[in-house]
C-alpha cells in the first residue's frame, strides 16, 4: 500500500495533462449515456416480479381486467350536486370522458344504470338524461336514488350530496402504445375545459393514472428543486473550508463529473430513473465532496508549511490515498448491498450511487490533483484556530473519559429504545406531499367519498354459474354486510346489491322484495336480463368472471394507514374462514401490496445489512491490521443508525419504505469518520509511539477539522434530500442526516473515550 | 421503360373506369352494402346451432350454446329467436328480436324461472351479449339502413379481392362505435373481417369470419366468427353448425307464446 501511495502522487503530477484529458474523456463518454435515461412511471415499480402480493394482485387482474383509473371529483361551490346545471355538467363530463385515450369504462351518477319496474317490464337506463331539462320532481327523484343506492352512496356521491365523482377506467394495452402522460394530459385538458365551461364547480383530478404520472414527475421535480439547493450548500461549505476559488471550482468539477458519470453509466446500463433513484446525483454530490476535501485540506496544510505545490500534492495523496480508497469502497459496498432490496428502485439507487462513489474516488485521486498541479493555487494562513478547537475537544474527552463514556452508553441505550415507537406506514398516496395536485385531490376524495385505498376480494363459488347459487349470494352478502359494519370502511361494492335490486324490480319495485333471490336459475335469469340491458362499456365483466363462478368485491377504506389495512384484511380473511371457508382468500390491491412493502424490504435488506456490516468490518480490520480496534469500531458504526431509528420513533413515529435501506446505506458512510479517526489514532500509536491519550490528541489535531467539515457536508446534503416532495426520499434524507450527525457525536465523544478505556 | 409507362397509362385508364360514372365513395359504399344485402335476400328462414366460447387474456374459457331461428320479413328487418341451452341456469331462456330497418329493434326475453316475457330496452344494443365480446348490434340483422357508408379501397385479404369500406352507425347515441371498417370479398360479397372503432376513435375489436359454406346454392354462412377485443385481450368465438334453410317457420314461431314454448 505504501508504495502505491507514493507512486500515485508522483505519477499524477508527472503525467498531469494525460490524466486531465484522459479522465475528462472517460467522464464525457460515460456521461453521454445519460441520453438513454428513461423515467419509470408506474406505482408498481417498487415491487419485484417475485413479490407474492403483487403476483396475487396480477392474478386478480388477469381475471377481471387490469385497470388504472382517472377520477374526477366534482364539488359544486353551492355545496349541492342536485342542481340542474351541475347535473348537466356531470352528463357532459361523462360523455367527454369516453374520449380520454385508453378509456374502457366511465362511471358516474349520470350514466349509472338505474333499474326500475314499469308495468311488467324492467327498465334499465341512465340515471340522468338531459340534465338541463329536468324538472324539480325528477331532480328530487334522482337525489333519492343516489343517496339510497349502495352502489352510489359514499363512492359516487357524498352522503350530504355535496360532492360527486366520475371514474374512468383505463386499460393499458399489451403493446407499447400506452403512455401515462397521454392519458393524464387528456384528463388535465378535460378538467380545464370543465372549469372554463362550468365555473361554478370545483374540480379535482386524481386516480391511479395521476399517481403514476406523479411518480414520473417526482424525479424531475426533485432534481429541479434540490440540486440547485445542494450546489448552494456545497459551494458555501467549500468556500468556507478551502478559502480558495480555484480549489472550490476543482472540487465542484470533480463532484459534477462523478454525478454525471454515475448517471451516464446508469443510462448505458439501461437503468430507468425512478423517484428513488433520481436522487442518486444528490447523494453522489454529497459523498464525492468528502474525498476532495480530505485531499485539498491536507494539500493546503502542506503548502502553508512551505512545501511546493507539486510536493504538497504528492504528500497529500500519500497520506490520503488509503483512507479515501477505503472510505469509497465501504460506501460503495453499503450502497451495493441495496441490491438485496425487494424494491427495484432502491437497487437502481444503490448501483448508481456506488458507480458515482467509485468515480468520485478516481476523479479525486487522479483528476483533481492533476488539475491542481497545473493551476496556480494559493491559500491563506487561517487554519490554526479551528485545529485549536479540536485540540481542546480532545483534552475535554481525555479528562472526562469515564463520565463521557457512560453518558454516551446511556444515550445510545435510551435513544435506541425509541425504536419500539416506530410504526411502518406506506400509504402510497402519502408518498407525495401537498405540492402535488393529485395528493390534494386524493385527500379531498378520501374526506368526502371513498378514496383510492381499496381492498379487493375475489370470491370464488367453485363452480360454473355458482354466483347465482342462493347460498353463495347469502354468504357474499353477509361478507359485504360485515365489512359495512366495520367502522373504518367507507364503501363496499358488492355484486349482491345488484341482485337484490333486480329482485325488487321484478316484483314491481316492492321494497319488501329488496332481498336476494332464493332460486339459482331465477337469479341467473335476472342477471341475464339485466346484462342484456346494459349499454356499451357498462357491462359486469369487471365484477363477474367469465364462467360466472366468482365475483369481485371492493372495500374502500380511506386513511387507515398500513397497520389498519393489514388488520382489516386479516379480519376479513378470518371472517371468511369462520363463515364461508370455501370462499377464503386474501384481500388484494395496491394498498395491500404497499402495506407489505416495508416489512418485506426490511426482511430482504436484513441480509444485505448483515453482509455490509461483515464486509465493512472486515475491511476495517484489514486496513487497521488490528482485530480489536476493528471490532471496537463496530459499536460507533452501527449504533448511529439504531439511534436514528429511535430518535425518529420518539419524535416522528411513522416511517415507510426508506427505513429498510437505512442501515446498509449509512453504515458505509458513517464508517468513513471512524476510518479517518482510527487511522490517525493508529499512526500516532505506531509511527510516533504515543500512548492512547496522546494518540487521541493526535487524531483530534490531524483529522478533527476534516471530519467536522465532511460530516457537515454529508449531513447538509442529506438534509437537502429531506426537502423532497417525495416522502421516501424525504424520510431517507432526514434519517440519514440524523444518523450521520449522531455518528459524528459518537466519533468525537464515544469512540475516543472507548479507546482510552479499552486500548491501554 | 416504355413498357412501364404503357402499363402505367393502361392501369390509370382502367382504374378510372368505375369513377367514370362520377360515383362518390359514399355512393359506392352504399352500393356494395346493398348488393350484399340483395344477395342475401330470399332465404325465407333458417335455423342453426351456435356455440359461444368466451376467453379471457389468461386463457380461461367458458361456453354457452344457443339455438337460433331466423325468419325473413320482406320489407323490414328479420325476426330472430335465440334459445339458450347452456349454461344450465339459463336453459330455456329465449331471446326474441324484431329488427327494423329504421328505428330501434324490438327485443323480448323469456325467463322460464319467472315464466314471464320481459321487454328489453334495445337502446342499449351496444352492450355485451351474454358476457361475450359480441354486442347485440354486432350479431343483429345487419340492415343496410342502419349505417352510412363510404368505400375506401380494394385490396387483397386472405387471397381474395376485397372491398374495404367504412360504415358509421346512424344511431350514434346508442351505438358503441363511431366507425366500422369492413372487408367484403368482391366475388361473393361475404364479410371477411370487420374492425370496430370506439368513441375515442381507437380500434376496439376485430371480427374475422371463416369456413364459409354456401346453402341452397346461394346463401353463404360462416362456420366460425372470431371476435377479439384489443383493449381487454378477451375474445369470443362463435361456432355455427347445422344450418338448415326453408324449414317452414312462420310468424307464429316468433311471438310471445312461441317464446314460452321454445325449449
Put the structure in a nutshell:
Chain A is α+β, with helices and mostly antiparallel strands. Helices cover 63% and strands 9% of the residues of chain A. In chain B, the strands form 2 sheets. Chain B has a 13-stranded antiparallel beta sheet. Chain B has a two-stranded antiparallel ribbon with strand order 12-13.
Structural description of this entry:
The complex is a heterodimer of chains A (760) and B (263). With 760 residues, chain A is of the alpha+beta class. Chain A is 63% helix and 9% strand. Chain A contains 23 helices and 13 strands. In chain A, helix 2 (16-31) packs across helix 8. Helices cover 17% and strands 43% of the residues of chain B. Chain B has a 13-stranded antiparallel sheet. A two-stranded antiparallel sheet of chain B has the order 12-13. Chain B is globular. Chains A and B meet through strand 5 and helix 17 of A and strand 5 and strand 6 of B.
Q: Please give the alpha-carbon distance between the first and last residues of chain B.
A: 71 Å
Spatial gap, N to C terminus of chain A:
27 Å
Q: What percentage of amino acids of chain B are in beta strands?
A: 35-45%
CATH topology title of chain B = outer membrane lipoprotein receptor (LolB), chain A
Globular, elongated, flat, extended or rod-shaped: what is the shape of chain A? elongated
For the biggest sheet of chain A, the summary is: 4 strands, antiparallel
In DSSP terms, counting alpha (H) and pi (I) runs of 4 or more, how many helices of chain A? Answer: 23
Strand order of the largest sheet of chain A: 3-6-2-7
* Strand line-up of the largest beta sheet of chain B: 6-5-4-3-2-1-15-14-11-10-9-8-7
Identify the notable features of this structure and list them briefly:
heterodimer, A: 760 residues, alpha+beta, four-stranded antiparallel beta sheet, three-stranded antiparallel beta sheet, 23 helices, elongated, B: 263 residues, outer membrane lipoprotein receptor (LolB), chain A, 13-stranded antiparallel beta sheet, two-stranded antiparallel ribbon, 17% helix, globular, disordered N terminus
